[in-house]
Structures are given as C-alpha cells and as structure tokens.
Amino acid sequence: MTLRLEKVTKKFGSFTAVDDLSLEIPEKQIFGFLGANGAGKTTTFRMVLGLLDQTKGEISWNGGDVGYDQSHLIGYLPEERGLYPKLKVQEQLVYLAKLRGMKKAEAVQQIERWLERFKVPEYKNKKVEELSKGNQQKIQFISAVLHKPKLLILDEPFSGLDPVNVEMLKKAVIDLKEAGTSIVFSSHRMEHVEELCESLCILHHGSPVVHGKLNEIKKTFGKKNVRVMADFDLAFLGSIPGVRKYKPLGDGCELQIESEDIAQRIFEELQGKGFVRKFDLEEPTLNDIFIEKVGASYE
Ligand SMILES: Nc1ncnc2c1ncn2[C@@H]1O[C@H](COP(=O)(O)OP(=O)(O)OP(=O)(O)O)[C@@H](O)[C@H]1O
User: Fold this and answer.
1) Domain residues of the chain, as ranges?
2) Fewest beta carbons less than 10 Å away: which of 157, 178, 267, 292?
3) Where would I find the ABC transporter domain in this sequence (predicted)?
4) What is the CATH architecture assignment of 3-219?
5) Taking Cα atoms as reference points, which of 40, 70, 21 lies closest to residue 182?
6) Ligand 1: which atom is nearest the Cα of residue 79?
7) Which one of 11, 43, 76, 187 would you pick to mutate in the ligand 1 pocket, going by the greatest count of ligand atoms within 8 A of its CB?
8) CA 287/CA 15 separation, integer angstroms
9) Spatial distance between the Cα atoms of 133 and 45, rounded to a whole number of angstroms
C-alpha cells in the first residue's frame, strides 16, 4: 500500500504552492515531511486526502485513487485542530468513529484504551471546551487513529505539546508503525523527524530539495561537522580555507567544513600547538542539512 505522487502540481491562481512533486511513501514506515512555513506540506496532505484537487499529476494509494470510499482506511490529524467544543469527549469520539464505519461498542472500548494510555481517563465525560489545548490535541489524535487506519497523516502532531506529552505521542506513533500503519507526518522540529523517520522529504517552495532514506541522505551529505576540545585558543581554525563556520564553545569549538578532507587539514594545524582533548568528525544533523538546502534556520 505505497502512497505515490507523480509530478503533482497545485496552483492557486498564478501562485504555485506545490511544484512537480514526485514522492513515494513506503508502507509500514514513518515518513517525515519537512519544509519552512508555506513550503506546501498541508496543501500536499489535502491533495492526498482528496480535499483539494491537484492542478496536474497523479496521486495513488494501493494502486488507485484516494477517495471517500477509503476514508475508513485513512486517519488524518489536520493542522487546524477542531473538535466540537460542546460535546463530551466520548460522545464526540464515538460519533467520529461511527462515521468511519466503527460499531459503537468497539469504539467505546478503544476510546477507553486510548484515554488510559494518554493518562486522561477522567476526561471521558467532560466537554471538549473544558480541556486544555494540549489535551484537546490528544483527543484529536485519538480520533485520527481510533478506527485503526492503514495510512495515518499527521500535520504537525507535536506542536503545542509539553515534553511529556510529546514523548507519549511519539511512543504511540512508533507503536502504530510497529502494528503496520504507514505514517506521514509534517514537522518543523528536525529532531523529531531524525528520531522517528526512516525516510523523509524536505520541501522548498513546493519542490523537494531532499528526498530519500535518512541514513543515505546523511551519507551523501558527508561529514561536515568537526568538534575540537583543547587547552589552547582555537580561534585560528576559523580562518583555515574550507572552514565555513567557527563556533566557540565553553571547552572548545565546533566547525562546519566544506568537505570531509578539510578535517585532515584542521587535524594537521592542531599538531604541536598544545594538548588536544577531543577531535571528532561528526555526521551532519538533519538541521544542518535543512539549513544548507533551504537556507533558513528555524526552530
Ligand atoms: N486556498 C489557498 N488559496 C491560496 N493560497 C493558498 C491556499 N492554501 C495554501 N495557499 C498557499 O500555498 C502555500 C503553501 O501553503 P501550505 O499551507 O501548504 O504550507 P505549509 O508547508 O503547510 O506551511 P506551514 O508550515 O506554515 O503550515 C502558502 O504560500 C499558502 O499561502
């Protein structure tokens, strides 16, 4: 059940929000969808769900269209959160589950399980408006997964949650993957994607600038971070050709280099200057890759 996008374009008038996007989202994996604000992530999700028509291109899942007749196989946590504020949590979740073809008794059982898991069983009979924003988000996440979808699309699932709830949700996402769900999620937080995803895509102005498996992307990118700890002043390393960025740290420095071979040069320059306690050539973080490819730093 691979989700495939082939040369998908979406225009709003003369503005191109998604530009010739081809993607393959493997099944039973967690796929990270990254991009700066306005890059086109939500627009892509809406096209996949059939909520928006693409201007050009093909979207297929399981070899066919993603239509309303498949909505019981798909779970969606939209970016614009929204539950019925006056309804009680259980009433609301049962209603949404029934829309996706679940029987009430099974829905009730699953709701109890999820509320327990998210440590909010006491909210079952509370009105949604009485819950904090983060707890409402947990309820909305439950509504997206209650019917055990095969494909789960999560638009910034971790935004607005405290660290304990982020961990709780991450664990739930990992367990759903283990159970065979294919998951796509968008995020602005590189470390979440780095931790959870096997594959990812970085969108920039509607086009993919990086796409593939995380470990292969890192390998292609090369090791471009050098960390040095020494008992002498390291500022001179900043002027070695090929060193892009010099960042002093309390006990040493961090350098960004153009290519791996510059590390050898740095190593040689350090010889005879004093005691070097640490010299590490490190893989780039996803944040480094994002900044290089998209040219903007953000949270
Ligand atoms: N209905 C619409 N009409 C006109 N322009 C739109 C519409 N929907 C989205 N856009 C534009 O398309 C671009 C992509 O928006 P989209 O919401 O997909 O970005 P995003 O990557 O999800 O951003 P964010 O991280 O801020 O949520 C933006 O410039 C947005 O203003």
Assistant:
1) 3-219, 223-282
2) 178
3) 3-230
4) 3-Layer(aba) Sandwich (3.40)
5) 70
6) 27
7) 43
8) 28
9) 23
